[in-house]
Write a structure and sequence with these properties.
The structure is a single chain. This protein is an alpha+beta fold. It folds into 3 domains: 96 residues; 129 residues, no CATH class; 85 residues, no CATH class. 44% of the residues lie in helices and 22% in strands. Helix 3 crosses helix 4, helix 5 packs parallel to helix 6 and helix 8 packs across helix 9. The chain is globular.
């Protein structure tokens, strides 16, 4: 947490946002060992473009990204001509460019609403500490910040009859209230405050998505009398103060005892939904496709499902969340934790399509 706080403070001091008309922006070819392009027109020298911003430029200009990547790696001059041509087709359209450490990290609509990690952490961390939450994990990825924690004071036994990997619920406070807070400063999804359930005996986390708070980055437009303007941090802080107070309140509500026990009832219900198919590989295949998980994870999930020995929706959920502990990619691990929560909350009809897959 100290490392995270230090990095967030450093970023808050060095980040800059610009609004520019497309006619004021262009890309130039630079030499960085294999060639590439940089963005020019931001009140100074051309700045390198981060990988995610490259994707946003391609999406905005409707250039297929595979072709964009190919030009970037093999024909940067051709890519620069393409990008500059399409930027010039709408010279008056305004874009927001977010920079950090002298690099363009996001290329967004001028109506994008920045909700920054530093302000989010400032809003929620005192609340988490006050509630007695133990921070179990935190991370800054290329596109998102994550804070994950558990509240040992709010726990329950595993519902009777549920088993996973030989573990049972006899007298064991196996399920603990948890929370996942995440945000993207670059337009890679919404701000989320997600109540979760942590399983102590196998250190698995399932995110209960139905109770998640989502805030889409739309609804305000920054404007200026000039083509280009850098916004001060104080402006964003004042504009977002009321919103982050709401985020704080939602963080408190995430540990509501009634909601936690409703989640336990969902888990109990998942334990009653049986896998009736004799073809476990097909069950896992259908589940991963419906949940939008990479095909390459199927073997691992199947192994954990068979080893766990619980042929129910709960068992499949646990196999998926156990897989999250085995992957190195933090974003992918969180997606698996979220998918585990989705399995727990499946309707009877949606579960039948998975549990009876043949």
């Amino acid at each position: 947490m100290q490392e995270l706080a230090g990095e967030l403070e450093r970023r808050a001091e060095t980040r800059k946002d610009y609004i520019a008309e497309q006619g004021a922006l262009h890309v130039v070819v630079v030499e960085n060992g294999i060639g590439g392009i940089a963005l020019d027109g931001l009140n100074g020298d051309a700045v390198p473009i981060a990988p995610f911003a490259h994707r946003q430029i391609a999406d905005h200009l409707e250039i297929p990204f595979k072709y964009y990547e190919r030009m970037l790696g093999q024909e940067p001059d051709l890519l620069a001509r393409n990008v500059n041509t399409w930027l010039g087709r709408a010279p008056g359209e305004k874009r927001m460019v977010r920079t950090l450490d002298g690099q363009a990290r996001a290329f967004l609509s001028s109506r994008y609403r920045p909700l920054d990690d530093f302000e989010l952490a400032h809003a929620v961390l005192p609340t988490l500490i006050e509630k007695g939450v133990e921070i179990s994990s935190c991370e800054l990825t290329e596109t998102r910040m994550y804070i994950k924690g558990i509240l040992p004071g709010l726990s329950d036994t595993l519902p009777e009859g549920l088993v996973y990997g030989g573990h049972q619920s006899i007298g064991m406070k196996a399920l603990v209230a948890a929370i996942v807070i995440s945000n993207s400063e670059v337009g890679a999804g919404t701000l989320r405050v997600e109540p979760s359930v942590f399983t102590t005996f196998c250190t698995n986390l399932a995110i209960i998505a139905q109770a998640a708070m989502k805030k889409y980055h739309v609804g305000r437009s920054f404007d200026s009398t000039e083509d280009l303007e850098a916004f001060r941090d104080e402006t964003r802080l004042a504009d977002d103060k009321a919103f982050f107070l709401k985020v704080r309140d939602v963080t408190v509500a995430a540990f509501d005892e009634k909601r936690f026990h409703e989640a336990i009832e969902q888990i109990r219900g998942a334990g009653e939904k049986k896998i009736t198919s004799d073809n476990l590989p097909k069950v896992v295949e259908v589940a991963t496709k419906r949940l939008g998980l990479p095909e390459g994870l199927q073997t691992g999930i199947l192994t954990f499902l068979a080893r766990g020995g619980d042929m129910t929706a709960w068992g499949l959920s646990s196999a998926i969340t156990e897989s999250a502990n085995k992957v190195d990619d933090y974003e992918l691990a969180t997606s698996l934790e979220r998918a585990g929560g989705q399995v727990i909350a499946l309707s009877d009809s949606d579960w039948k399509a998975i549990g009876a897959a043949a």
